[in-house]
């Protein structure tokens, strides 16, 4: 009876030995193929070492803000973010240059959203498919459930005035909840 208890272990041992013997008989190139694999970054103290190479400037600019609904709930107030390591929260705008706003139904933009950054830089959102107003905002929910947060909404935007006039890109809103605000990331590239 005791011998039956060891049969599964004996089978596993035999399969392992066969696998090792098979791998040992393969040519070196079949066991270790690194020709198409890029070299890994150097590692010091089990942590990646920062690259000393200067990244190539793509011309893309990224602006990051904290947003919070105003008292009427119709406008998002923008303020700077502050960080504690990797955690970002709402900072305090000391001047108009450090803040802004988002109006989702701006009459001067045919009823589509308009974003103001600082005092005089404006971005207008537009439908991805001209004539289809439902394609202005694209929401992404966890499990496709609109009641769950966090959630993400993306709009395509174009700079219409100020420092980024003519620049194009996206405005990504990462929502923590209707009364909790969130993060706005504007990623834009210069005119071609």
Task: Give an account of the 3D structure.
It is a single chain. The chain is globular. The N and C termini lie far apart (80 Å). With 192 residues, it is mainly β. Strand 5 and strand 6 form a beta hairpin. It has a domain of 129 residues.
What order do the helices and strands come in, and which of them pair?
Blueprint: H1 2-24, H2 28-31, E1 43-44, E2 47-48, E3 61-69, E4 75-79, E5 81-84, E6 87-90, E7 100-103, E8 114-117, E9 121-125, E10 138-141, E11 151-161, E12 168-177, E13 181-189
Antiparallel strand pairs: 1-2, 3-4, 3-13, 4-7, 5-6, 7-8, 8-9, 9-11, 10-11, 11-12, 12-13
Defining key terms:
192 residues, mainly beta, eight-stranded antiparallel beta barrel, two-stranded antiparallel sheet, 2 helices, globular
């Amino acid at each position: 009876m005791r011998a039956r208890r060891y049969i599964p272990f004996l089978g596993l041992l035999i399969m392992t030995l066969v696998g090792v013997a098979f791998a040992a008989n393969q040519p070196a190139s079949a066991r270790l193929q690194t020709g198409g694999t890029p070299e890994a970054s150097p590692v010091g103290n089990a942590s990646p070492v920062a690259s000393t190479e200067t990244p190539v400037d793509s011309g893309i600019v990224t602006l990051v803000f904290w947003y919070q609904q105003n008292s009427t709930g119709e406008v998002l107030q923008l303020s700077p973010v502050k960080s504690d390591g990797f955690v970002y929260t709402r900072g305090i705008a000391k001047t108009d240059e450090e803040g802004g706003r988002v109006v989702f139904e701006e009459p001067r933009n045919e009823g589509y959203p308009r974003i103001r950054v600082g005092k005089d830089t404006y971005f207008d959102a537009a439908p991805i498919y001209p004539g289809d107003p439902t394609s202005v905002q694209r929401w992404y929910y966890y499990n496709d459930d609109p009641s769950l947060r966090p959630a993400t909404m993306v709009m395509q935007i174009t700079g219409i005035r100020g420092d980024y006039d003519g620049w194009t890109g996206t405005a990504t809103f990462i929502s923590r909840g209707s009364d909790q605000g969130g993060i706005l990331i504007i990623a834009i590239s210069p005119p071609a």
